C-alpha cells in the first residue's frame, strides 16, 4: 500500500467500524448501533 491508500483504509476503519461500535458517554455508554436499536420508533 502507498501512503494515500493507507490513509483511506484507516479512515474507513475509523468511520465505518470503530466509531459505530465503541461506546460513547453521550449515549449512555452505548455504541451508536446499540443506541439506534433501542431508540428506533
Structure description:
By secondary structure, the protein is mainly alpha-helical. The chain has one domain (3-39). Helices cover 66% and strands 0% of the residues. It has two helices and no strands. The protein has helices at 3-21, 32-39. The protein is elongated. The model has no long low-confidence stretch (mean pLDDT 89).
Quick structural gist:
With 41 residues, this protein is an all-alpha fold. The chain has helices at residues 3-21, 32-39.
Name the features.
single chain; 41 residues; mainly alpha; 2 helices
Describe the largest sheet: none
Count of discrete structural domains = 1
Structural class: mainly alpha
Helical coverage, percent range: 55-70%
Rg, nearest Å: 14 Å
The low-pLDDT segments are none
* Number of H- or I-type helical stretches: 2
Distance between the termini: 43 Å
Layout of SSEs?
Layout: H1 3-21, H2 32-39
Amino acid at each position: 500500500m502507498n501512503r494515500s491508500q493507507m490513509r483511506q483504509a484507516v479512515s474507513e476503519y475509523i468511520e465505518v467500524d470503530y466509531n459505530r461500535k465503541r461506546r460513547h458517554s453521550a449515549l449512555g455508554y452505548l455504541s451508536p448501533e446499540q443506541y439506534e436499536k433501542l431508540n428506533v420508533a
